[in-house]
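Long-time lurker, finally posting.

We've been working with Protein regulator of cytokinesis 1 (Synaphobranchus kaupii) and I want a structural starting point before designing mutants. I don't trust myself to interpret raw outputs, so I'm hoping someone here can both generate the structure tokens and explain anything notable. Sequence follows.
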Amino acid sequence: MRRSEVLLAESVACLNTALCRLKNIWEEIGIPEEQRVQRTEAVKNYIKGLLDMMILEEENLRKCLRSSIDKCRKELDTLCRELQLSPFEEEDSSTMLQVDKDLKTRIEVLMKQKCQRMQELKALREQDQDLCDVLCTDSYSLIPRENTVPSLQQLQDFHQHIASLTAQKEKRRNEFVGLKKQIILCMENLEQLPDSSFERDVVHEDEDAFCLSEENIDSLRLLLSKLEKRKAENAARCGICRSRIRELWDRLEVCQEEREELGLHMASSKKRNLEALQAELSRLEELKLDRIRDLIKGIRVEMASYWDLCFLSAEQQQAFALYCSDDFTEELLAVHKAELLQLKQRYQAHGELFDSVKHWEDSWKLFLKLEKKATDPSRFTNRGGNLLKEEKQRTDLLKSLTKLEKKLKVQMDAWKEQEGREFLIRGQNFQQFVEAHWDLHRTEKEREKLERHMKKSRQTEEDMLFGTVKRTPSKHKLPGNTTPCKVTCKGLTARTPGRPGRPPRAGVLERNKENISHLNGKDVGGASGTPDTPQRNVSINSVASTYSEFARELSKVSKSLCKTGALNSTASNP
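Top reply, 14 upvotes:
Generated this for you. Predicted structure of Protein regulator of cytokinesis 1:
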């Protein structure tokens, strides 16, 4: 008995067992007969639908197998005709699956044979085309058409033709390679590049790509004879420069290592050797001048650094007019050395003073940087505790600058008494040097203050014109009266409680609310009967120059607001 039949019987038994269990469950539950019939009908429909779906799938499989067999038979017949083989014979007792498998296996084998023949034909065609291009002959004509599968005999004939062309190519190629090597050696000796297109093809193109026709071989022989003649003419021109070079080596005391670097050119007579000898001769002529130029340029770089270290002014630097001279001679080198020696002596004699001035200048630059940060309005947002640190650093730095100025002034005065003249910093004495920095700093601050004032004036004019004042919202609610005040804002008419007046239009009130508050210093929502105090007029939105000033001004404004709120509360609640 087949295993499938056993499984089928087990399936029927499982189905009967499941139905019996359902029956027992229904009896135990006490389901009425009508519901049992419905449930049994549902089980039957489910099983029937499942079996029908499985039957449909198997029928589709059978249909696909038949379609596949028909397709494979047609494809197999086509392959047999292309490969000139006998038709494929099927076994009568085979099942559909076995027939489909056999057909596909046979198709796969024949497809491999077809691919192999086509690939072999393609390779032979490529070889034939390459050989024809090299030998300048016509292509092989006894080959099948492009899409036709060749027979085994046709492929064998093609192979014999390729072998014949390959032997002919190898013979001509050997002769070409020998001529090419001699031509390249002559051109290298003459330092000559290929001039004509034919010469470029000979030298640069691949050996297999060169057309090995009989005419090209003859042209190669003629080219080689011309190059050998020019090589002989170039051999006698190298000895003239050698004696002159040896004389200059001895005169300039050139070391043996540099002489050995030119040893190859001193022994050979190629064109590049001649050019190298001529170049060496020119180099030796300019060697002395180059050495002087390098020394002067190096001294000038060092002089520029000492000018900065000694704080020389532009006029003092320009006094050495030979600094920009391009006449590099021994006299100019001696003058530069003397000037550099004076600068070094000056720095060594007063290095402590110069270093102290440099320290003061670096501290001043840091102070200006902190001052710039202190006037930046954005420092009050996302400050992370840096404001107090920066303020402390700025205060300490200012004290350090003051102490350093006093110390330097004492040292400068002592030097003046000792030397009998002023110690100049960029053309000024130290006091003028410091005052110039402070004057420039104050001028810059006044300019920035004027710019802020003009910007604020323009903003105020725009606010008065358009009635839109942008204010920064406060984080803390200011104290004020909680009940309406009897005193009205400027520009509004007071009315008795018994006769409420017509309220102003909302649009006009909203447009003028900020302008009234900005011009009169009063709140629009409530009224204040007390006059504005000087502290009241301090603007919180103004940018304080330091953190401490900002804190003091904020404290004054907060106290003023608290007092005003308390008075308003008393006046509105008698």
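Before you design anything, note these points.
Confidence is low (pLDDT under 50) at residues 474-547, 561-574.
The longest helix spans residues 33-82.
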